[in-house]
Specification:
With 329 residues, the protein is an alpha/beta fold. The chain is 29% helix and 18% strand. Strand 9 (311-317) and strand 10 (320-324) form a beta hairpin.
Length: 329
């Protein structure tokens, strides 16, 4: 994890949310919602600084594929929790957006070390889905942190050490792909934003000691909610969508007991009068037979061998979706 501290934009940190070792899922301490939830993205102050290390998406081909998706065959029912199998991921994504949400909260399970040969959820969202949001979304909040240069270096270093416990197993390319997501959003006319913790918030994380990760999770949810509500209130964003992209724990509209403070879902759902959609993106190859994955409500209903070449979409609760990508070629 690289943490330059020369400017607000350059000092982007991967947030304390990542999949657990061994391909954990998106929840607390493991998968969708915990010390192992996915995260990240680019600086709103200077998105042009987005690191070029991640390959830029082929926008024209991607946009064409997304546009073509709307004219495909009807989805095939595939079981419980409203399961539908679509011919293409873009079709499943269009289905998720049918209600026209004001906030689209996307959570992912981060790519882990050793999985570099499989396209990540971040890359797929950037290439397959983001072009379809041009003109429909005003802003994108990414779960990367921008460090205030006024904060003490010792503060930042201590917090960075705490983050390593949850980011050390992640793919080295994750941060670059989040930055590329923000850069592509800017190119499409969608303003990208980073989270900007204050020096006081860094102090609070340091003082939390063994509960530092929990403090980070709560801070991420709090800052994202505040930023989203501010963006929704802008006159030039009227009628457009705000996207939050990060860990699959923070977007839960119905967090598991004890994790309520880790999620901005309930607050933003209330702020939008229910015009809120939670969408978890899952790369099929990342799913493991582990405790953290088995704890997810859709896992018992997912058949890895069924519909391997289709995008499988679960709808476990109103306004909540899980999109599992087809197997990689």
């Amino acid at each position: 994890m690289r943490t330059p501290r020369t400017s607000l934009v350059a000092a982007a940190l991967l947030a304390a949310c990542g999949a657990p070792a061994g391909g954990g899922a998106p929840s607390a301490g493991a998968v969708a919602g915990g010390p192992s939830a996915p995260s990240a993205v680019p600086p709103s102050a200077a998105p042009q600084a987005a690191a070029p290390q991640a390959a830029a998406p082929a926008a024209s081909a991607t946009a064409a594929a997304a546009a073509a998706a709307t004219a495909s065959a009807a989805p095939v029912p595939c079981g419980a929790l409203g399961c539908l199998a679509f011919d293409a991921p873009a079709e499943a994504f269009a289905h998720v957006l049918q209600g026209g949400p004001r906030v689209l909260a996307v959570g992912e399970a981060h790519a882990q070390q050793g999985a570099e040969g499989v396209p990540s959820a971040t890359r797929r969202f950037t290439e397959l889905f983001l072009p379809a949001l041009a003109g429909r979304a005003s802003d994108l909040i990414v779960e990367l942190w921008a460090v205030d240069p006024r904060c003490r270096k010792e503060q930042v270093a201590r917090v960075e050490e705490e983050q390593k416990a949850v980011t050390q197993t992640q793919s080295a390319g994750n941060q670059g792909e989040f930055l590329s997501l923000g850069s592509e959003a800017k190119r499409l006319g969608i303003r990208p934003h980073l989270l900007a913790p204050s020096c006081q918030e860094y102090d609070a994380i340091v003082r939390a000691g063994p509960d530092a990760v929990t403090a980070m999770l709560e801070m991420i949810a709090r800052l994202t909610a505040a930023k989203a509500k501010a963006l929704l209130g802008r006159e030039d964003a009227a009628g457009k969508m705000v996207i939050a992209y990060g860990g699959a724990l923070h977007n839960d509209v119905a967090p598991r007991p004890g994790r309520e403070r880790w999620s901005f879902g309930p607050e933003l759902s209330a702020a939008t009068g229910g015009e809120y959609v939670e969408l978890d993106l899952i790369v099929r190859e990342f799913i493991k037979d582990s405790e953290s994955w088995r704890a997810l409500p859709w896992y018992p209903h997912f058949d890895r061998e069924a519909h391997p070449d289709k995008a499988v979409l679960f709808n476990p609760a109103p306004g909540a979706y899980v999109l599992i990508f087809p197997r990689s070629p």
